[in-house]
Amino acid sequence: MKVQINRDLIRLIEEYAGSLDAFSDIENISLYHDLSIYGDGANELLSKYSSLFNVSMNEFHFNDYFPEEGDEISDFIKGLFKGKEKKYKPLTIGDLQQGIINKKLN
């Protein structure tokens, strides 16, 4: 079942990623994997999201979903020597919409 995505949520994400018009399946867009939002940008976006939609982030583990600034490069270099890069879970626009409904993101 398709989730109706809040227009204010779309506008917030577009502040960081530009227009989402090229995407056909908006609810499955991953902030990091598809839009390359990570580090300070992801932190700012989620802080605004939490305030704007009154969503609790107490159980959300940022580092499971996003690298910090510079971590993307260091993870790649570490991966060359250890054989694998750190994998980040996808955080999708649909997940953020569900967080608005549930009043928490985890």
Distance between the termini: 21 Å
Count of the separate structural domains? 1
Shape: globular
What is the CA-atom radius of gyration, in angstroms? 14 Å
Q: Can you write the helix and strand succession as a string?
A: HHHHH
Overall pLDDT score: 89
**Proportion of residues in extended strands:** under 5%
Number of helices: 5
Unreliable residue stretches: none
Q: How many strand units?
A: 0
Major β-sheet annotation: none
Q: Helical residue percent?
A: 40-55%
Estimated structural class: mainly alpha
Pfam families: DUF1493
InterPro entries: DUF1493
Protein name: DUF1493 family protein
Please render the helix and strand layout as text.
Layout: H1 7-17, H2 39-53, H3 62-65, H4 71-82, H5 93-102
Helix pairs in contact: 1-2
Organism: Bacteroides ovatus
Protein name: DUF1493 family protein
Pfam family, one: DUF1493
